[in-house]
Write a structure and sequence with these properties.
Layout: E1 3-9, H1 13-33, H2 51-57, H3 63-68, E2 74-75, H4 100-108, H5 113-122, H6 145-151, E3 155-156, E4 158-161, E5 172-179, H7 184-204, H8 212-222, H9 227-230, E6 235-236, E7 245-247, E8 254-256
Parallel strand pairs: 2-3
Antiparallel strand pairs: 1-5, 4-5, 6-7, 7-8
Helix pairs in contact: 1-8, 4-5
Length: about 260
């Protein structure tokens, strides 16, 4: 099995943060839509996707960490990032574990709380890969090698990617949830669809926000066999409004966040 990943460059950090949040909500649905791990399919395991299998295989939490860190380092996101008026604080409805010293230092340097907690959350994990010649030899004032060591081994459905110092690139968002397909044509079709989807999201300022806990529930459902046809997902009833109504995956009713 494998994954089809795409990285989108935004025009600015604000656009990147908006795109990060909206794609995070769509990740479970696109994972189910692209499910393509036929080696499982009710024989090896009753799933269609690789996500939960890889998540468990790289879950290096110690027994004590299991008590305070809810997820593997390979999982769905833990918090939204956008500062837009569409975002409501209650959408971040699961406890976020983060390194308080890192968070405090970032905020002291002018980083807003949402972004500071996001970055500090990466630092609750130990680095998995250490390269010879890239430890004490690296000047953290000039290079992000050490940061990328942690960033690149936190494998979430969406990844927020700051521009490297001195590089001619901007703020980027990596979409990581989809499965690789059997043919180039199928892979290209999915890639083009998501590219067009990002343009629609940004142009029409679509609002896909649901609570993070509902995104997590969708991730669990989306891995089930033939989920795209047989399962139901949490999703907003009105993606053009800033209201807080979200359709339940069972009765199709709506609930309103407090």
């Amino acid at each position: 099995w494998g994954c089809t990943q795409m990285t989108f460059q935004a025009c600015c950090i604000e656009e990147a943060r908006d795109l990060y949040d909206q794609l995070a909500v769509l990740s479970p649905i696109m994972m189910a839509l692209s499910a393509c791990s036929p080696m499982f399919r009710g024989m090896l395991a009753d799933v269609d996707c690789r996500w939960g299998v890889i998540s468990a295989s790289v879950d290096d939490r110690t027994p004590s960490e299991h008590e305070r860190i809810a997820k593997s380092r390979y999982d769905s996101i833990d918090s939204y990032l956008s500062l837009s008026k569409l975002f409501k604080p209650e959408y971040n409805d699961i406890p976020l574990v983060y390194d308080e010293d890192v968070c405090a230092r970032l905020m002291a340097e002018g980083v807003d709380e949402l972004m500071a907690r996001h970055v500090a959350h990466l630092f609750i994990r130990d680095p998995l890969v250490i390269m010879q010649g890239l430890i004490s030899e690296v000047d953290d004032r000039e290079s992000t090698v050490h940061f990328e060591n942690l960033q690149s081994t936190n494998w979430q459905t969406v990844r927020f990617k700051p521009p490297p110092p001195g590089a001619d690139m901007g703020w980027r968002v990596e979409f990581r949830a989809m499965e690789v397909q059997h043919t180039d044509y199928e892979n290209a079709a999915l890639v083009v669809f998501v590219v067009l989807l990002t343009r629609v999201i940004l142009t029409f300022k679509l609002n896909f926000y649901i609570p993070i806990s509902a995104v997590d529930a969708n991730m669990r459902v989306g891995q089930r066999r033939d989920a795209v046809r047989n399962e139901k997902f949490y999703f907003r009833k009105n993606i053009f409004a800033s209201t807080r109504s979200v359709a339940t995956p069972t009765a199709g009713a709506a609930f309103v966040a407090p």
